[in-house]
Amino acid sequence: MINHAIRLGADVEAALQSGAPVVALESTIISHGLPRPANFTVAKEIEATVRQAGAVPATIGMIAGEIVVGLSEEEIRHLAERDGVIKLSVRDLAPAAATRADGATTVAATSAIAVRAGIRVFATGGLGGVHRDAVSTFDESADLTALSRLPIAIVCAGVKSILDVHATLERLETLGVGVVGYGTRRFPGFYLTDAGFDLDWSADDPGAVAEIIRAARAHDVHQGALVVANPLPVEEQLDPALHDRVLAEGLAGLEREGVTGKDVTPYLLAHFHTATEGKSLDVNVRIILRNADLAARIAAAI
Ligand code: PSU
Ligand code: MN
C-alpha cells in the first residue's frame, strides 16, 4: 500500500511549528504558465523574494504521487523541466497520487493543500475564472469554487485578462469570496493595471490586510477566501493596444486549433509570451514577484 501523507519541507515544518510566517506558492505557474528555461529561474526568484520579505516559501506540488508542501530546489527543477508533468486541480489529486504521477498544482489545488497544512497566505499571478465563451462551454475555473470554501488570503493581480473579468467578479460575489484592492478600489487586469471595474473594499498596507484576516478568523462566519488584488503600476503594465491585439489573435487560435478545457489557459499564456516577444513574460514575472513580496509582508503582519 502507498502512504498518502502530505510531506512538509524541513523549513516549512519548522516555520509552521514555531508560528513563523509561511507563504504558499503554486507550481502550475512554473510548469504550464511560464516558458522554459525562464520558469525555473523565476521559481527560485519567487522563493527568494518571499524570504527577503521575511517569510518562508512553501512551493506546493506532487512528486511521484506524493503531495509536497515546500518542494526542494531539485523537485522544483523537476517540475519545471520535465515533460509530462500534469496540471492538477483539486479533483486530480487522488488519481494522480494513486498512480504516482508528477504534477503541478493550480490555484485551486494549492490553496486546498495549503489550508490543510495550516498555511493561510498564498501568492500567485492571476486567478482562474470564467472564460469568455462560458455561456456555451461552461468553462469556469475550479479556482472559484475552491476559493469559496477555503480560509486563505490569496495575493494576485486580479484574474487573468484572457477571461471574462466582469462575469468572474459576479461569480466571486455569488460564491462569497472576499475581494479587497491593495491600494486601489479598481480591480486589476493581470497584464493590465485596471480591468475596468470598481471594488467595494481596499487596504493600503500589509497591516490593514492582516486586520481583515484577523477579523474573519475571530468571527468564524465567513468561510471563503480573501482575494488581495494587487495591481501593477501603470508604467509596468503591458501596452494595452498590444494586449488587446494579441488576445484577439489568441482567442481566434483557440477556435482554429480546437483547444478546450484545461489546455485553454496554458495555450493563451504561451501565445502571449511568443506573440509579444517576451514582453508579457517580463510583465508576468513582475506580477508574481510583487505578489510574493506582498504576501510575505502580509503573512509577517498577521
Ligand atoms: N496565473 C498565472 N499563470 C498560470 C495560472 C495562473 O499567471 O499558469 C494557472 C493557475 O494555476 C490557475 C490556472 O489556477 O492557471 C487556471 O487554469 P484553468 O483556467 O484551467 O482553471
Ligand atoms: Mn477550465
TrEMBL record:
Recorded catalytic activity of this chain's protein: D-ribose 5-phosphate + uracil = psi-UMP + H2O
A Pfam family recorded for this sequence: Indigoidine_A
Family the UniProt entry places it in: Belongs to the pseudouridine-5'-phosphate glycosidase family.
For this chain's record, the cofactor binding note is: Binds 1 Mn(2+) ion per subunit.
Q: What is the lineage of its organism?
A: Bacteria, Bacillati, Actinomycetota, Actinomycetes, Micromonosporales
Q: Per its UniProt entry, which superkingdom is the organism in?
A: Bacteria
Iron-sulfur is among the record's keywords: no
What does the record give under GO molecular function?
A: hydrolase activity, acting on glycosyl bonds
Tell me the protein's name: Pseudouridine-5'-phosphate glycosidase
Indicate which residues the UniProt annotation says bind Mn(2+).
D139
Residues involved in substrate binding: K87, V107, S141, A142, D143
What function does this protein fulfil?
Catalyzes the reversible cleavage of pseudouridine 5'-phosphate (PsiMP) to ribose 5-phosphate and uracil. Functions biologically in the cleavage direction, as part of a pseudouridine degradation pathway.
